[in-house]
Amino acid sequence: xxxxxxxxxxxxxxxxxxxxxxxxxxxxxxxxxxxxxxxxxxxxxxxxxxxxxxxxxxxxxxxxxxxxxxxxxxxxxxxxxxxxxxxxxxxxxxxxxxxxxxxxxxxxxxxxxxxxxxxxxxxxxxxxxxxxxxxxxxxxxxxxxxxxxxxxxxxxxxxxxxxxxxxxxxxxxxxxxxxxxxxxxxxxxxxxxxxxxxxxxxxxxxxxxxxxxxxxxxxxxxxxxxxxxxxxxxxxxxxxxxxxxxxxxxxxxxxxxxxxxxxxxxxxxxxxxxxxxxxxxxxxxxxxxxxxxxxxxxxxxxxxxxxxxxxxxxxxxxxxxxxxxxxxxxxxxxxxxxxxxxxxxxxxxxxxxxxxxxxxxxxxxxxxxxxxxxxxxxxxxxxxxxxxxxxxxxxxxxxxxxxxxxxxxxxxxxxxxxxxxxxxxxxxxxxxxxxxxxxxxxxxxxxxxxxxxxxxxxxxxxxxxxx
Length: 467
Ligand SMILES: [Zn+2]
Hints:
Layout: E1 3-9, E2 18-23, E3 26-30, H1 41-45, E4 57-59, H2 65-68, H3 71-76, E5 82-86, H4 87-117, H5 132-139, E6 142-145, E7 151-154, E8 157-163, E9 171-177, E10 183-185, E11 208-212, H6 225-239, E12 243-246, H7 252-265, E13 273-277, H8 279-290, H9 297-304, E14 315-317, H10 321-326, E15 334-338, H11 348-355, E16 362-365, H12 374-379, E17 388-391, E18 394-397, E19 401-404, H13 414-423, E20 430-434, H14 438-452, E21 455-457, E22 464-466
Parallel strand pairs: 3-4, 4-5, 5-6, 10-11, 11-20, 12-15, 12-16, 13-14, 13-15, 16-19, 20-21
Antiparallel strand pairs: 1-2, 1-22, 2-3, 7-8, 8-9, 9-10, 17-18
Helix pairs in contact: 4-5, 4-8
The chain binds zinc ion (ZN).
Residues 62, 64, 166, 188 line the site of zinc ion (ZN).
């Protein structure tokens, strides 16, 4: 048998995961993600390196955009096979693809308008990368698979899904072609400390390992999230205004609700009215409620006994814009979770507009803020006075308190990835390091060679390696 791996994305970059496994003429694509780096956008528009019609199956490790976001384009260009993933990913991926399609359509309209104003015209008619209908077509090809059970994905090829601990439904994927050497794909690897999902699993090792390295050069500090959250919220309550929490819709928003419920049950939460103001986060919350089997045993048992750890008194889900606007009338005691997580768009900007210049309100960050984003600007205003930021075309002075709770992370840090890799049974002999920046992935491959004496490389974009 001849088998190979081709690295068609997230090779020496952090997004755009796309790995092609070929065995005896059969082709299975593991993840079909969007490149999110601005300078790599062209790759999303380029023809696929392999004809979509000639791919037998796609497997998704999880539902994040950089792992499933190019699937609608693959289907639009002729892919006719099944898309295999866990039940929870089958809930998340359609939400993510539909949301992305709406943004792509908006983007195309915006570009057409801007070019018209500038007297320019483009010959391709300003088509989006894909549209909502194409996202729906892609979702229709999804076929959920059970945990830890090999399923046939192509003639002679099986795949099994094992908890990865990153987000709900996220899986390590083990591929086996006939009696050939198996390959384990880490997808994105969790820290092992998530209160919501189990993993990463170590009993599913394989001779070949494709491993992510997002934080392959960094460690996470051990931080007590509940204590930080409780003290920041207590101070905000004393201040008397509202709290705006810019929040990622997948996993982080649900984890915050879970943490708030824990504080409430421990008698450590004041009388906040909590608003989850994000249709996407509300959709993801429903996926949590529909998939207790993808959550920790404690949460699963609580849910099966009719106690959802994501519900709490005073929680309002704002699905539509009108409900969102009613929050503006709340003068004090509103705790608002809204996206975008880095304040780059979405409903959170409206809540910032109402609260940024109020000395009694608080903006509370619970996630990473990339440089150049509004979130980063607000975060960096801490300890300074009179800082102005631009919001809806106007300069606003930041007078509210700006706080941060650290210690949330969806990705394993360096020693967490190494501990997981070292505990895999059976142990890998070869490793392919992906999903990390150029220097990080190269250094992490060197670390694997040195520590475990494995053959380890960071493949180049487009490289094919025989197994
Ligand atoms: Zn991810």
